[in-house]
Design a protein that fits this description.
There is one protein chain. This protein is α+β, with helices and mostly antiparallel strands and about 350 residues long. Helix content is about 25%, strand content about 10%. It has one domain (about 5-355): Jelly Rolls (Sandwich), CATH 2.60.120.620. The structure holds fe (ii) ion. Fe (ii) ion binds near residues 100, 102 and 268. The site of fe (ii) ion has 3 residues, from loops.
Length: about 350
């Protein structure tokens, strides 16, 4: 990784790596994924076993991405699964992209605005949607709370790696879209929430969990209010892009065999696919090794796919020693995200010294 690339990762919060895979590796994974897709169905759901297939996991393991990440970050536990993300061609059903920071809850919510408490931004009949004990509610790849004390509502990791398997060089083909550069602002929101002594994540300062859209429909709110506003504000200065109606989002343009590395804190979203072909990406979520954590490498965590690695993948609480608080550790990392990137420290120090 050269200095310009490190600088770009620092400034933008993401970086595209060209040609991390051979055409034959791309083809082998596509064959597995396409073979598993249901025919003649509009919505595409890939069976779970595909996510652990050697040709699919191999997109990460057998590329040079692990080496690059070790360089940038340091050691991380082995990955055991991934997220296969396929958006069908001519899929405009997605409508407005749901820009978010990963690790939030996005389960079933009430359909009417008057069912949401305007002060707490929770359902008035919370038990119906959150369960009777919302600190232990699992499932849906999302948990309401990470910790029994309900201080942390957002799961986290260090880097999202997206491997591209379909042509995404022209905007409007279902690209991964990002709020470029806003990773640092998201970190500041987490810092403000920590300083408030309240919740970190949704239900904390600046981040109502459920909001009401302009058509009076409740939606799970994936972003702090200030970040959404800042995204739109900064988007006004972005040059318009043909076939890309979302000024605030930057499309991540890739060819098959390319990869994108994005910080956990970088707000992102899939986008509608106006093109004829399915958009196919495979995502890996990597968290830098925490040597004090006795569960690092346990299959129960499902490292690679989980966005909440302080709990078991299915939401189960794990036993931790008295002297290790996994949630406080995660809060500290959310509030200082570059502390998980050993190989970025020189670039970071250089930026700080030139900024003074
Ligand atoms: Fe996401």
């Amino acid at each position: 990784m050269n200095l310009a690339q490190r600088q770009q990762l620092l400034d933008d919060g993401y970086l595209v790596l060209k040609n991390v895979l051979s055409q034959s590796q791309v083809d082998a994974a596509k064959t597995v994924i396409e073979g598993a897709l249901p025919k003649n169905e509009r919505r595409i759901l890939v069976p779970a076993e595909v996510a652990t297939h050697e040709h699919v996991i191999g997109l990460f393991q057998n590329s040079n991405v692990p080496g690059i990440l070790s360089d940038l970050m340091g050691p991380f536990p082995p990955i055991v699964s991934c997220q296969v993300a396929v958006t069908p061609g001519r899929d405009e059903l997605g409508g407005i992209p749901g820009t978010h920071v990963d690790g939030g809850w996005s389960g079933a919510i009430p359909t009417r605005a008057d069912e949401i408490d305007p002060l707490t931004h929770r359902p008035k009949d919370a038990a119906r949607y959150y369960g009777r004990n919302d600190e232990v509610r699992g499932g849906n790849d999302g948990l309401l709370w990470m910790d029994p004390a309900r201080r942390l509502s957002n799961g986290s990791y260090s880097a999202l790696v997206g491997i591209c398997l379909s042509d995404q060089t022209q905007p409007g083909n279902g690209q991964f879209g990002v709020l470029k550069g806003l990773h640092e602002e998201v970190e500041k929101v987490f810092q403000r929430q920590r300083a408030s002594g309240g919740v970190i994540g949704a239900e904390g300062v600046d981040w109502p969990r459920i909001k009401i859209d302009e058509r009076e429909r409740p939606f799970c709110n994936g972003l702090p209010d200030s970040i959404r506003a800042l995204g739109f504000e900064r988007g006004k200065t972005n040059a318009p892009i043909a076939d890309w109606p979302w000024r605030e989002l930057t499309p991540v343009l890739m060819e098959p065999g390319d990869a994108v590395i994005a910080l956990h804190s970088l707000p992102h979203t899939p986008t509608p696919n106006f093109g004829p072909n399915p958009r196919m990406n495979v995502y890996f979520r990597i968290r830098r090794l925490r040597p004090e954590n006795p569960h690092e490498g346990s299959r129960r965590i499902a490292h690679g796919v989980s966005d909440h690695p302080d709990r078991g993948y299915f939401g189960q609480f794990l036993d931790y020693p008295e002297d290790y608080d996994p949630w406080q550790t995660s809060i500290d990392k959310l509030c200082d995200h570059w502390s998980e990137w050993d190989g970025m420290q020189d670039t970071l120090a250089n930026r700080q010294s030139t900024a003074v």
